[in-house]
Each structure stands twice: as structure tokens, then as C-alpha cells.
Amino acid sequence: MDIQPYTSTETLAVGRPWLMSMLGIEANESVTLDLTQFDETLHWTEASKYQPERKLKSGIPLGKLTASGLFAPYNAVSNEVQTLTVTGGPTGGTFTITWNGQTTSALAYNATAAQVQAALEALSNIAPGDVVVTGNAGGPWTLTWGGAQLGENVAAPTTTESFTGGTTPDITIATTTAGGAAASADGSDVFAGFLFTEVSFMPGATKCAAPLMVHGQIDVAKLPVAFDPTDVPAGSNTQFVYKV
Question: How far is it, in rounded angstroms, from Cα 8 to Cα 119?
Fold first, then answer.
């Protein structure tokens, strides 16, 4: 039997496209994540028939919650939240939503939140994770912005209605939380570091251990969640060399 030597090479950035260098630091801090604070698509991908674990994306910026001591997504500034409400009690018809110059396909007057979100994500200027839509069929629908719009003062959408029935049916739009304002001081507003690796967890789990990267050089443009180093307040971890 002929046994040949086996040589392998491991690259530090495999699975971490945002990581440029650990700057000689090989150990990371072990922390516990509060999984209830993370959102599907933006922070983690859903399990499948053949892969039962959900996966948190590596590179998520984190902060430490003061009340629990657990780690959650870093949140220095508030995200824009808008509410769309159908008035006048229509019994049929459709409407469209226009945002930043692009218009969705027609939506039924009693569309579900999932249908509204899918229509928005079909626009070329809204990527999955940029907005999460919640609410009942027929509204009100709540639009919570994130992703590329994380912490931004997002322009309100407009709507065009072709409703039938009811009494002067319409859609009203209100901004319930203005984006870009300082977030609540719950600890997540102080930047601690980045999630160093992908982390798997089972559906229903509320906590899991994870490695927190506290020193390194990163490519901001390749992080899975929008991150602006200029938003990092005093008291945050600054042991990073950023590249935009």
C-alpha cells in the first residue's frame, strides 16, 4: 500500500467575504446570542428539508444588551417604520406601491403582508432584507426598513388605488418611527464586534454561543448587514481598520 502525504491549505476568509485580516489575533471572545433579536433573511436563512438548522450569517455587527448580558444586532440608529392603512372599507379592486421611482405590480385590496413584501422585493431597488412587511390581510401593513436602508431616513412610498365598494376607499401612509434617529440606549447601541463565523441553530432556539471578533480589518461593503463606521458612538469597540 502506497501512502502519500496529504497537504491542505486553509484560507482565513473562507465563508467570511468581509474579512481581510485578523491582524495577528487568533482568539475571539465567546459570547451568547439572543436569537429572538435576529431577523430572517437579514440576519439568518431558514432551515430546509435537508438542512434542519437555521444559519446566522457571519459578519453581523453586534452589541451587548444591558438587561440580559446577551448579544444582539448592533443598532446605533433607529430604522424607518411606516404603516399603510386601507380606509373606507373597499370590497374589491387593487392598488400599487411606488417607492423611489419604481412601482409594484397590482396588489389585491386584501393582500397579505407576504404578498406586499414580495411585490416590493420584486423592484430592482429593493433587495430581500431591505424591508420586512407585517400585518393582517387587507392591512394595516407595517413596513420596517433594514438591509441597505438600515438606520436611514427612508422616503415614504406612495400608492395608487383602483378600489371598488366601500365609502371613498383610500390608503393612508404614516411614518411611525423615523429612521436615522438615535436608538434606545439598551446596550445594542454600543458596537462590540462582528460575528466571526456562520452559526447554526435549530428552529425554536432562543440562545446560542458564538465567537465575537473584536480585532481585525474588514471590508465594510462586503458585510451581510449594512454598517457605517461613522455611526459608531463613543464607548464602542474601535479595534478595527475599516475599508469602505
Answer: 46
Region class of 89: left (phi > 0), else alpha (psi between -120 and 50), else beta? left
Q: Tell me the HSE value of 138 on the side-chain side, using a 13 A CA sphere.
A: 10
C-alpha cell at 191: 458596537
- CB distance 76 to 231 below 8 Å: yes
Q: Which amino acid is at 71?
A: F
DSSP per-residue string spanning 124-139: TT--TTSEEEEE-TT-
pLDDT value at position 14?
Answer: 65
Q: What is the pLDDT of residue 48?
A: 83
Measure the CA–CA gap between 195 and 20, rounded to whole angstroms: 14
How far is CA 124 from each of CA 19, 128, 171, rounded to the nearest angstrom? 28, 10, 24
Give ∠ CA 56-192-180 in degrees, rounded to 5: 85
Residue 41 burial (10 A CB sphere; 0-12, 13-18, 19+): middle
Please give the Cα distance from 217 to 21 (Å, whole number).
5
Spans in the chain with pLDDT lower than 50: 8-11
For the chain, what is the radius of gyration of the CA atoms?
21
Which three cell numbers mark 9?
491549505
Distance spanning both ends of the chain, measured CA to CA:
53
